[in-house]
Amino acid sequence: RDPNQLEKTVNAELIKVKNWCNVNKLSINFAKTSFMIVKSARKRLNIPVDIRLPDKNGLFLHLKQNQHIKYLGVLIDEKMNWQYHIASVCARIAQNTGIFYKLRHFLTPRQLRQIYHTLIYPHVSYAIVAWGSAYKTHINKLQVKQNHFARVVFFEVLYGENTASALPLLNLLDLLTVKNIYQFKALKFIHDWHKQILPSIFNDFFHYAKNVHSYNTRYASQNNLYKSRFRTNMGRQTISAMAIDIWQNLPSIFKDLNIFAFNKNVKTYLLLNQFE
What predicted TM-score, i.e. pTM, was given to this entire model? Predict the structure, then answer.
């Protein structure tokens, strides 16, 4: 809320970080060190924030402010709308789709599907639990790229008024849409939590509805989760909010299956129920 207080607090903490590095004989690479302020899209900072780190000579070096950073292969942006990461994934898909223009003359659609799971699917599915709840306008850009791949495989018209729907083509290949890939990964995440195989840091990530209130309801009896209220759109788009609704809509017969059976049955269920 107060940029001046933010600047003062961070700079004081960075001196402690620098002292800790000195004690442990570590050095900070200033060329690769920057900062980013995460804020709401409606929040504007009219006052520049000056973040500084002392070097070995006691001089202060001013860090560069970035709009996005890359962390473990994911581009996190200051507004948390994932537009930079999705643009990066789109670029990778477009680059790899070009390979299928040549391969489609020599391989069957099923063989091309296997290559899809090597060249395209890993980019779409990687960390999608974190960013897959982005605005529909951003997700649609990825879906366009996936549709383009399907049309290439079946020699369909790629552009113009005669372009047919790509969903039947994706169904022929048994491929989930981008939206359903997110749903599948989100359901796997909750199922792993339900089976208590996630790291202990996630123990309190969700809560069963039946443990929050004492009275029994149909919702609570189906291993559904308690959904907290969020005041902001950013909060409503987190996995801890979005996945609860997806889990609620999943038939209860799937929820207690073992991991292998759960993955197989849920994927089939999503394939049979995916729409444009």
Answer: 0.85
